[in-house]
Amino acid sequence: MPLNWLVAAAVSVLAVFAVADSLRSGRASSTRAASTTREPATSLTPRLSPKREIEQVGNRWAALFARGEDDCYHMTQPLCERIACERVGGVEIRNCTPPTSVFRRSFEDAIVLDIAFKRHAAAARFSNGEVVEFGGDGGTWFMRKLGANAGRGFFE
Questions:
Q1: 43: number of Cβ within 10 Å
Q2: Cβ contacts of residue 92 below 8 Å, gap of 6+?
Q3: pTM to 2 decimals?
């Protein structure tokens, strides 16, 4: 007899949890149903043109680079490693010279003045005369070259 009461109590507890879960699921599904009638947030904000995106990324990066605070967020891994003269894992790159503090500071007030495109690549000329080359995947642009050879063939 005590076993019957125990089984009945267990079934009752499960039933209470099942009802609570269905009520919670009902609220979630009504929220989901409401959200499917709205456009996703990304479609509400217009996508930047490639030129505007490169301009924003370049200007933001220049200020960080000048202060030595560039965190490689908008750079390809090879460029980031070249600037730090260090591979992932802390392995030093032989015969590598990091950008000088004078070169970095030249970007302090620099802004993107001109942008040129070639297929999935672009180059941005900054107000300090330096050029940075970008590579793109159709939606995001990353810096991939900086210095003497960057942007070669883009502005000629």
A1: 9
A2: 85, 86
A3: 0.67
Examine residue 103 and state whether it is found in any structural domain, yes or no: yes
Q: Is residue 154 part of a domain?
A: no
pLDDT digits (tens, 9 = 90+) for 13-34: 444 344 344 444 443 333 333 3
* pLDDT at residue 2 greater than cutoff 60: no
Q: Are residues 30 and 79 in the same domain?
A: no
Provide the domain limits for residue 12.
2-43
SS3 105: helix
Structure tokens at 79: 């460029």
Q: How far is CA 37 from CA 23, 30, 33, 57, 108, in A?
A: 22, 11, 7, 33, 46
Closest CA to 69 of 107, 95, 97: 107
State the greatest distance between any 2 C-alpha atoms of the chain, in Å, as a whole number: 94
CA 71 – CA 106 distance, rounded (Å) = 18
- Measured in degrees and rounded to the nearest 5, phi and psi for residue 34 equal -65, -40
